[in-house]
Write a structure and sequence with these properties.
This protein is mainly α. Helices cover 52% and strands 7% of the residues. It has a 3-stranded antiparallel beta sheet, with no helix packed on it. Strand 1 and strand 2 form a beta hairpin. Helix 2 runs antiparallel to helix 4. It is globular.
Length: 182
């Protein structure tokens, strides 16, 4: 499997969003859009229940690390929350499958993964469920230039790991070196 990177082009993010809304259910499209707004692993994203959100704040205990994270939801995330709330579901991204075994269960990682695999063909680059988290980290770093903030948000132990994770690579370093004159 190829390593996926953050999506560094906003038009590619929009292409994925448009593809998902056109070819998949609203719940899959909303999971993608919401995932771009928060720094969660897909397992934590899909496990969100409405009871985990209070006054625009999401509280999640990461399944991988058992660390608790508090996330103030932005306007986009709140709009998705409002739309999803109208369904009366238990989970934010609840499966609408007709199978009895999937009643009151979230959409599966496999469902979202399949959708993103197909969407990746549309933009010509490898993406998967991890791309949401990496993309959030990349764009947050670009907006703040604060690698320590991104590192803490992603719950990484080193800035070197975070830089590699969000795809700050040699090409970007070359651009910095060639463009800055002192």
């Amino acid at each position: 499997m190829n390593e996926v990177m953050a999506i560094k082009n906003k038009s590619d993010i929009e292409k994925v969003s448009n593809f998902l809304s056109k070819h998949y259910s609203e719940v899959v499209s909303d999971a993608w859009s919401f995932g771009l707004q928060v720094s969660l692993r897909v397992s934590d994203l899909l496990a969100i229940k409405f009871t985990d959100i209070e006054n625009g704040v999401l509280k999640v205990t990461a399944q991988k690390t058992d660390k608790t994270q508090r996330i103030q939801l932005n306007k986009k995330a709140l709009a998705i929350l409002e739309r999803r709330l109208k369904n009366g579901d238990e989970y934010l991204f609840q499966s609408k499958s007709n199978r009895a075994k999937s009643m009151n269960k979230p959409v599966t990682r496999q469902t979202l993964s399949k959708a993103l695999k197909e969407a990746s063909i549309q933009i010509g680059t490898d993406i998967n469920t991890h791309s949401m988290r990496k993309t959030w980290g990349y764009w947050t770093y670009k907006a703040t230039n604060n690698i320590a903030l991104v590192q803490k948000s992603l719950q990484h132990s080193s800035t070197a790991h975070t830089l590699r994770y969000i795809g700050i690579d040699q090409d970007e370093l070359d651009n910095v070196y060639s463009s800055i004159e002192i």
